[in-house]
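I hope you will forgive my troubling you with a question about protein structure. I should value your view on which stretches of the chain appear to form regular backbone elements. Here, with my thanks, is the record as I have it:
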Amino acid sequence: MSDKPGTPVRRIVTGHDDNGLAVVASEASFDAVDIPSGDAAFCLVWTAPDLPVDNMDPVDGRDRAAGLTVHGGSVIRIVDMHPGCASPMHRTNSLDYGIVLSGEVCLELDDGSVTRLGSGDIIVQRGTMHLWRNPSPTQGCRIAFVLTAALPVSVAGAELPEVLPA
């Protein structure tokens, strides 16, 4: 697990197979690299080139209506997964960055695969069908999620639909 400075950062990236099922496209660990000033080390995990934000907007972000995502925008939220609980299977038209802050969580994809993540692990969720499950019967799991608007995924010329929890 990557919960201490100096340990590698683990990244899991999801994608789709030729049938449109969600798959873990890559899993890798990366070392942080000292920056020139020497006071920190950085590890680039993922970038997206577009999402213009108006930093002059006077609205307090907590006062803006938001579902799981904000169409055309972004959301950051902390999710406390209760012990032994799971989210519904879902897919959003978004690029999501999830950082496990404490505890453990399992990422389950519609292809049946399960990837366990622990404190310090990062998931890059790319519009795939998935659910989150806390495998512990006694310990909660806290995850920081950053969701940014994305185009729908297309497989064989057909857009995969959003599937939102009820």
About this structure: Confidence is low (pLDDT under 50) at residues 1-5, 38-42.
